[in-house]
Amino acid sequence: MRSPRRASIVLALFCLALQVWSSLAQTPGQDKNNIQGELTYIDYHDGTGDWALLDKSNGRHFEPLGKGKKPPKADKNGKDLEPGQYMTIGCTIDTTTGQCSFISSTDVTVLKPAYIPPATNVRERLLVVIVDAPACGAAATSGATVSNLQSLYFGPNLDGKGGWAVRLENCSYGEVVWEPPTSGLTQFVTVTPNCTWPTASCDAWAMANAANAAAQVKLGATTYATFTHSHLVMAVPSACSWAGLATLGGGVGGGGQVWLNTNTWTQTFGTFQVPLQESIHNFVLYHGYSSGIEYQDKTTYMGTGQACPSVTEKALTVWTQAL
Ligand SMILES: *[C@@H]1O[C@H](CO)[C@@H](O)[C@H](O)[C@H]1NC(C)=O
Ligand SMILES: CC(=O)N[C@H]1CO[C@H](CO)[C@@H](O)[C@@H]1O
Fold it and tell me: Where is the Peptidase M11 gametolysin domain (predicted)?
């Protein structure tokens, strides 16, 4: 199981060139862009994925490293990079293309190690952000209302004794719990973001950034900062081929992001499988990114009815081993 992954990490060494999105603002003539945050990965369930730095101090903002690009293997001090580490990346901009040119290890500094989870229960203060943005081609579908989603997540009494919440608690052996709306610690909100994400391609980071920014505007920064995890419910561009996505990491320490696609309503919202699998992805741990990422690509969420998502036990086994 291990050696093919090692091989893929070795292969990653040959893919060091990084690019930044054009959304990373550049003043003409400026040739350096510095970003910092927690190294985060999303997996597209097709063997590919994208990296970003998650800046939690800035309203949970993702700074993408570039479509399909991987970070270097190690930082300037020789420290292996893995999801969950807090780091700075200095990216030299090619003034002709406006894109990030080759990033060497010397451009990367790990400032804090990946967060090692405590053995205590995790109680997520969930912010579910429903996008209703007709002007951006992303009108909310009929089922994507606060009341409908609250009862899908938490059961008819919104107390977590029903819905997906009770499944999450059970499937995680009680380790992961979503605080119910009745606690006042979890909130569902419908927002109309600015149209800052591309609609002809599938840029999960840009969609999350737009939706989270709009939620922060609507709720106020103080309230917004109390939530530990963010779920985006949205009619994503047709270029997106997934029912759901999640960041690898951001589970225990907070900052985890989940994306749920309303275009695939029955698959995504018809059972607890997709929401739970994505939520549990946030808890997959960080033992060098090979061992973390091995859980992302091969699992299926097409499972039937009552079974816990197949990723659950693996994720929690890793969790247990880390203690
Ligand atoms: C839209 O963008 C403007 C200008 O940056 C900003 O002031 C406003 O808060 C944004 N609105 C939302 C909903 O994000
Ligand atoms: C209600 C429910 O989902 N119960 C399940 C809890 O988890 C155990 C073991 O994973 C299952 O056997 C139960 O059916």
Answer: 125-320
